[in-house]
Amino acid sequence: MDLSQPRSMDACSAGVAQDAKSSAAITKVRSVATTFEELCTDHAAARELSIAESVRRGLARSTPSLDLTYGDIGFEAIREGLAAASPPKGGTFVDLGSGSGRAAVAAALLFDLGRCIGIEILTDLHQAATETAQRYKAMRDCLADHPVRTTSSIEFVCGDIFLEGPRVLREADVTFVCCVTWDSAIMHRLAHLLAVEMRPGTKILTVGQPLPAHVELQTSGKGAVSALPHEGAPGVGEVLTVVRFDETWHGLATCEWGREVMVLHEVKKLLATSQRPSVSYPPGPRLLEQHGVSAPQRTKSRDPLAATPSRVQWPSSKRCTIC
Fold first, then answer.
1. Distances from the Cα of 19 to the Cαs of 24, 147, 224, 284, in angstroms?
2. How many folded domains does the chain comprise?
3. Domain limits at 181?
4. Are 197 and 225 a contacting pair, CB within 8 Å?
5. Helix axes 123-140, 102-110, angle to 10 degrees
6. HEC profile for 139-194?
7. Helix or strand (DSSP H, E) at 137
8. Contacts by 225-228, CB closer than 8 A, 24 or more apart
9. Do 113 and 152 touch, CB atoms closer than 8 A?
10. Calculated CA dihedral for residues 128, 129, 135, 137, nearest 10 degrees
11. Residues 301-323: pLDDT tens digits?
């Protein structure tokens, strides 16, 4: 901008209006952040609840089929990640492994959503989330006396995400998963669940590691859906669908134990064939290229944020230091 030239009154007025709008937005975020902390159980207390129940019930903290490690990301990271996902007005947000409910509350406060749903397997954390939801509802019902305006509903379900997930994921517009310490077997099982239930164009925000690049599903004539085995191909009369999880955005989440990568994925579904294909399985990039879609090419990079989303080299596994 050339500061030597005088600005017109219209330009000055526009600048003042823009500054006022930016100031109002900052004030709103600060009000929401304050409300968020007032409503939610803090990280340390939630972590203690998680550990205490695991010990009381004799549950292993981390196995190839179940991971009970507690971890929350900060309010600002949730806000940034969900802003990148751009949830639609009146849409549905789902948190798989919702802990004490912090992500669902943040989503409800920040965006004009219809429903915010969390699923948590540990009963003590679920109870803490339920109490948070009650405080949120009391605040929401007294809008005239509160600086934060929201109409989103919050609900929490106590159960296994793989059993309860199908009931809510079909309606989800944005799904959130903090999966920093999850084993690769759990991640592939998660990817299959999301591939079956989520609609094309919907978004998935993960923290700590990305989803597998794609999942292959075969559908029988009776409508049953299953993951394609590592060896083999669809039988006669079966339909193969390739579900891709395209990485569209990366960010950094500040956590109690350090920083983690956030990855936003978009669900894309490709109908591959209704007959026995001529290619060998698993087809991987060959099948995708056959349908005019280039498979993501990842190259080595020390800093994931220094590369474009389709050129990131992800580690095979990632662990954090929390209990």
1. 9, 21, 56, 50
2. 1
3. 25-215+248-275
4. no
5. 20
6. HHCCHHHCCCCCCCEEEEEECCHHHHHHHHHCCCCEEEEECCCCCHHHHHHHHHHH
7. helix 123-140
8. 225/196, 227/192, 228/281, 228/282
9. yes
10. -150
11. 333 333 333 333 333 333 332 33
317 within domain boundaries: no
- Are the C-beta atoms of 156 and 129 separated by less than 8 Å? yes
- Say whether the peptide bond before residue 282 is cis (omega within 30 degrees of 0): yes
Indicate whether 232 belongs to any domain: no
Band of pLDDT at residue 6, cut at 50, 70 and 90:
low
Is residue 157 included in any domain, yes or no?
yes
Give the pLDDT confidence of 86-113 residue by residue, as tens digits: 999 999 999 999 999 999 999 999 999 9
Query: For the domain that residue 91 is a member of, what is the CATH number?
Result: 3.40.50.150
In a domain, 19, yes or no: no
- The sheet that has 115-120: what strands, in order across it? 153-158, 115-120, 92-96, 174-178, 203-207, 258-273, 239-255, 214-219, 225-227
Stated as kind and residue range, the H or E segment containing 219 is strand 214-219
Residue 52 to residue 55: CA distance in whole angstroms: 5
C-alpha 2: how far from chain center: 44
Reported in sequence order, the residue ranges of 15-148 that DSSP labels E, i.e. its strands, are 92-96, 115-120
How far are the Cα atoms of 13, 77, 107 from residue 261, in angstroms, in the given order? 40, 10, 19
Going by C-beta distance under 8 Å and a sequence separation of 6 or more, which residues neighbour residue 273? 234, 239, 240
**CA-CA distance, 100 to 23, in Å (whole number)?**
31
**The two structure tokens encoding residue 68:** 């009970």
pLDDT of 83 higher than 90: yes
